[in-house]
Amino acid sequence: MSSALALGLNSQGFEFLLYNPTRAKAEGLKRRLKNAELWQGQSFDVVVLGFKPQKLSEVMEELTRILKPETLVLSLLAGVKLEKLQRHFGSRVIRLMPNLAIAEGRGVCLWSSPLDKKDNAFWQVSLNALGFAPSVSEPELDLYTLHAGCSPAYMYFLIHEMKELAQRAGGDPALAAKILTLSLQGALGQLTGEEDFKALITQVASKGGVTEATLSHWQESGALSQGLEAGLKRIQQLS
Ligand SMILES: NC(=O)c1ccc[n+]([C@@H]2O[C@H](COP(=O)([O-])OP(=O)(O)OC[C@H]3O[C@@H](n4cnc5c(N)ncnc54)[C@H](OP(=O)(O)O)[C@@H]3O)[C@@H](O)[C@H]2O)c1
Q1: pTM for this structure?
Q2: pLDDT digits (tens, 9 = 90+) for 106-124
Q3: Residue 76 CA to ligand 1 centre (angstroms)
């Protein structure tokens, strides 16, 4: 995700210093950026936290030795609260919740910032390069982590499951994936999010039909909504 962020911000005039425990990963990203070096102890103004939230305590000690009080910390860590980050890294922390399409400027990057108006105005302009980048409160950032960060995987899961279904039923999984991907592009491509989604469902799911059979099963079993609730619960556990 930190690679996607760097690629999305590549046009914004930043100079990148790259560090990854697996050096080849940093070298690979360096080749894709306009203005980047491997980090070898150089000083920097902003640091992006792009490791797994579970690694925070392990990395914290290492990082606090490197950071200056004025260093701005951009945290990608899902669920980890501003208060906790500020306690460890000082007051200059912004939380981001992006998805991978930010690499091409077609993603969503929610952000929550306690910084002043001038700093926030700067970051709003920079983050706009990633796609849709609304500034939100911290509880909203956590809530919409499912909608921004996780939703692409929910879609990929559906495609994967439907590929498997095609295979089990003697079909061609590759063709199934193509049909589904193009169908989703056609169905979602022109949407803005302001549509009446219940009405859109009714357009497809006629009474007693095939679509309704699947949707009713999802609704009655509660599996889909319980899965989403489990995601929300996990965010609280990570904080
Ligand atoms: N993936 C998403 O779609 C998504 C969406 C929103 C937010 N996020 C957030 O983004 C963060 C990264 O997620 P990810 O999916 O990109 O995970 P990832 O693919 O596992 O990447 C994590 C990276 O952190 C590196 N790392 C491990 N220890 C480190 C250390 N001590 N210092 C610096 N880097 C270290 C890993 O390097 P090695 O491979 O060498 O161990 C790896 O390259 C998470 O906090 C997640 O909550 C992810």
Answers
A1: 0.93
A2: 999 999 999 999 999 999 9
A3: 9
Residue type, 143: L
CA of 149 to the centre of ligand 1 (A): 13
Topology of domain 2-136 in CATH is: Rossmann fold (3.40.50)
- Residue 239 in this model has a pLDDT that exceeds 90: no
Whether 22 has a pLDDT exceeding 80, the answer reads yes
Atom of ligand 1 nearest to the CA of 2: 16
The model's pLDDT over 24-41, given as tens digits with 9 standing for 90+, comes to 999 999 999 999 999 999
**What is d(CA 68, CA 70) in angstroms, rounded to the nearest whole number?**
5
CA of residue 132 to ligand 1 center, whole Å? 22
Ligand 1: residue whose CA is nearest its atom 39: 22
> Residues enclosing ligand 1, CB less than 6 A?
1, 19-22, 25, 50-53, 55, 59, 76-78, 97-100, 149
Three-state DSSP state, 59: helix
The CA-based angle 18-123-76, given to 5 degrees, is 50
Look at residues 7, 28, 6, 151 and name the one whose alpha carbon lies nearest to residue 74: 6
164-178 pLDDT, tens digit each: 999 999 999 999 999
User: Where along the chain do its domains lie?
Assistant: 2-136, 144-188, 191-239
